[in-house]
Write a structure and sequence with these properties.
Chain lengths: 73, 536
């Protein structure tokens, strides 16, 4: 079992979270959408697995490299 | 190192007796081929690294290596002045061909004294070395295979004095940047002079996991700052390529690095007095792509894949992206249109909406200068909302770096074509074309532009009016709608302030025609570029 951290590439805020803890994801699935520079930035699963934890909620501010959620695979 | 005693017996394959001189040549050549000896070569392999001679054979055309300075090194002689053994110089150099075109090439031999300088009167390579001179005199590309830490304090003991920095320094390396393509691969741990040479290149690449580059390595950091840090953490690709942009591209293996170097050279002329090489193209020039009509989402807040857009337009399989992991708000790629090399500068809406930050400005500046120097026309695919905003962006001097991009764009002498895909705002928008000339500004129907986007712009310009309105929110929206009506690209085209609005599906034919047209102007502008003014 390996845990992968999914991090934010941008400074911005969380617009909506599309998945729940326990959901199965495949590489490229959109887990949540951030908002930055008036643009929707989809956060895609970097690997196949199961969402182990979601560390942010809508309207939270996020920083570059901040961990948004973790995937177990 | 090579022990002479083991090689004095004649082998049958040598065809019997040999004249003494010939035997010595053979002996010395064998010594060179053995590099630092079996043990040192094994160590190099155990570190997942190739020897310099293996590197050469993988990068260059088969049997194209004409070695220069094979015999350079230190001989040891017995009391009768008879040669006992030779330690070859820790640098292998020569002329070779890559894809049929001649290059000057050299690299440190890490198996001999860690690739440090060896103190001959004339350097084979490195600062002020022979292969730099070869590249300069014959106007051929220079290829550096870097695997060394440069100067060592022990050389002062040998010389009897300490060398002054900059004497036999980077003069030639600096000069070459305006004359011939210079490509460098960092293939081991590079610090000092060799690391500096990697930077004085038009294209540099390093291997993820097995190579590191820094101004100074962990022992110096420990002594200077008292900090313990591993060399990979200090100067691996995650820092040097992805974070800092010190080196342009990362490679998965040494072979991948060689492929990238050869690929990069394939777009460039041999020198600035020549035109870039045109290859045959079997991708139809008139290929129209319907997908382009719908690639930009209707909702202005939704991004799309600019990489996909580029692929749809240029010759199939011709894209070579420079710095794909650094300054990601802008994409800089060499590509071909109808076989002709072209530089693509495209904003990336998936990263900060394509807003220009300090890193993407630096990346764009390097790429513009590269293409301008080697007569490669530029195509800007524009979707830029402006400079990046916020505290971090200001701390990183976004405004200054961004204005440097505007300054360099303003001095371009290659033909440029600006095609607005969606947004083109403000000063960052100014860095996307050279307005001093008659270069074309085209737009897709989805284009929009101005000094700043209406949203936010209205709030700033009509602050008092909005605040005093009975329903401030409603008044702000009203003002936005009023101004948005003026921002239709067709109104600008009506005023002939943008030359043409094109059907997105016709992008490829139009760009191919432009690059063909550019050729005539490029031909009358060959030679080195002048340098003007003080960069902001």
């Amino acid at each position: 079992m390996t845990t992968t951290n999914v991090t934010s590439e941008v400074i911005g805020s969380v617009w909506k979270v599309e998945m729940n803890v326990g959901d199965t994801v495949q590489t490229g699935d959109v887990i949540m959408i951030l908002e930055s520079m008036k643009m929707e930035i989809p956060v895609e699963a970097p690997t196949d697995g199961k969402i182990a934890d979601i560390l942010v909620k809508p309207e939270d501010s996020v920083d570059e490299d901040q961990i948004l959620c973790t995937i177990e695979s | 190192m090579h022990n002479r005693e083991l090689n004095t017996e004649k082998s049958d394959s040598d065809g019997g007796a040999e004249a003494p001189l010939h035997e010595e040549l053979r002996f010395r050549r064998l010594a060179a081929l053995e590099m630092g000896g079996k043990e040192a070569v094994d160590r190099q392999h155990a570190a997942s690294r190739l020897t310099v001679r293996e590197r050469l054979s993988k990068l260059i055309d088969v049997k194209s290596f004409r070695e220069i300075g094979t015999l350079a090194g230190s001989g040891e002689y017995d009391e009768n002045n008879k040669l006992v053994k030779v330690t070859s110089a820790p640098y292998v150099a020569g002329l070779a061909r890559i894809n049929g075109r001649p290059v000057a090439i050299g690299g440190e031999d890490f198996t001999v004294r860690g690739g440090t300088t060896f103190g001959s009167a004339r350097r084979k390579g490195g600062q002020g070395g022979f292969i730099e001179d070869l590249a300069h005199y014959y106007k051929i590309p220079l290829v550096n295979l870097i695997d060394g830490a440069g100067g060592t304090v022990t050389s002062a003991k040998r010389r009897g004095y300490v060398a002054f920095p900059g004497v036999h320094g980077f003069e030639r390396s600096v000069q070459l940047l305006g004359e011939v393509p210079v490509v460098s691969a960092v293939l081991g741990t590079a610090a000092g002079g060799p690391a500096g040479r990697a930077i004085l290149s038009h294209f540099s690449v390093m291997v993820r996991g097995t190579s590191q580059v820094f101004a100074a390595g962990p022992p110096v950091v420990k002594r200077s700052l008292g900090r313990d840090i591993e060399k990979e953490e200090l100067g691996g690709a995650a820092v040097a390529v992805d974070k800092a942009g010190t080196i342009h591209n990362a490679a998965d293996s040494e072979e991948d690095a060689f492929e990238q170097m050869a690929r990069f050279l394939s777009y460039l002329p041999q020198n600035v007095w020549e035109m870039p090489p045109v290859t045959e193209c079997d991708d139809p020039v008139d290929r129209c792509e319907n997908e382009l009509r719908t690639i930009v989402p209707e909702r202005r807040t939704q991004p799309y894949s600019m990489h996909r857009l580029i692929e749809l337009v240029v010759d199939k399989g011709s894209v070579f992206e420079i710095q794909p992991t650094y300054g990601k708000a802008v994409i800089t790629s060499l590509a071909r249109l109808d076989g002709r090399p072209v530089g693509i500068i495209a904003n990336n809406p998936k990263f900060y909406s394509g807003a220009m930050d300090a890193n993407s400005a630096r990346k764009q500046i390097h790429f513009m200068e590269l293409c301008d120097t080697f007569h490669i026309p530029l195509v800007f695919l524009v979707d830029v909302p402006g400079f990046m905003v916020g505290l971090k962006a200001e701390q990183e001097a976004t405004l200054r770096e961004g204005m440097r991009a505007v300054y360099v764009a303003g001095q371009l002498s290659v033909p440029t074509l600006t095609l607005v895909i969606r947004k083109c705002y403000g000063m960052a928008g100014m860095a996307t074309c050279n307005k001093n000339d008659i270069d074309l500004k085209l737009s897709w129907p989805t284009g929009e532009w101005g000094s700043l986007p209406v949203e936010g712009g209205v709030a700033a310009a009509f602050r008092r009016e909005i605040a005093n309105a009975p329903d401030p929110k409603a008044r702000e929206k009203e003002l936005e709608e009023e101004l948005n009506a003026y921002s239709s690209p067709f109104r600008t085209a009506e005023a002939f302030a943008v030359e043409e609005i094109i059907d997105p599906s016709e992008t490829r034919p139009i760009l191919c025609e432009f690059v063909e047209l550019a050729e005539g102007r490029l031909r009358v502008n060959l030679g080195p570029k002048g340098k003007a003014g003080v960069s902001p």
